[in-house]
Q: What sequence folds into this?
């Protein structure tokens, strides 16, 4: 139960710092943290670190845990890739339309992804061998 509360708290922390009314605001907010350093930006993704802790230290080795770790790894990598392009003022092939149209981000969509991770984590805790 304590592990489950831990993932809820870490997801809430990530939800609280990843703010933005639209995609442009969201990326600008993340860029502020990215400018402080890639390591700093990566450490702010505490739920990824928490899942790795559960996998390697507490031997929570279900397929669900690995799925969360892989998805979060690619999510962080994708964000770093976008922010690196912004820093280098590189081309945004395929992203210009999204940034120029100011695609709105609802809190529901952000909470839905957090809820998905929490659900997978719950499944991983209750089904350690898949």
A:
């Amino acid at each position: 139960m304590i592990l489950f509360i831990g993932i809820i708290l870490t997801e809430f922390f990530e939800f609280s710092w990843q703010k933005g009314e639209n995609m442009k605001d969201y990326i600008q907010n993340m860029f502020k943290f990215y400018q402080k350093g890639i390591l700093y930006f990566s450490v702010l993704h505490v739920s990824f670190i928490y899942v790795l802790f559960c996998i390697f230290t507490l031997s929570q080795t279900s397929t669900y845990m690995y799925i969360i770790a892989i998805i979060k790894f690619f999510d962080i990598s994708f964000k770093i890739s976008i922010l690196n392009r912004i820093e280098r003022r590189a081309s945004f092939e395929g992203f210009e339309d999204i940034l120029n149209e100011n695609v709105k981000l609802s809190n529901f969509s952000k909470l839905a992804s957090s809820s998905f991770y929490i659900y997978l984590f719950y499944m991983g805790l209750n089904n350690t061998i898949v």
The chain has a mean pLDDT of 87.
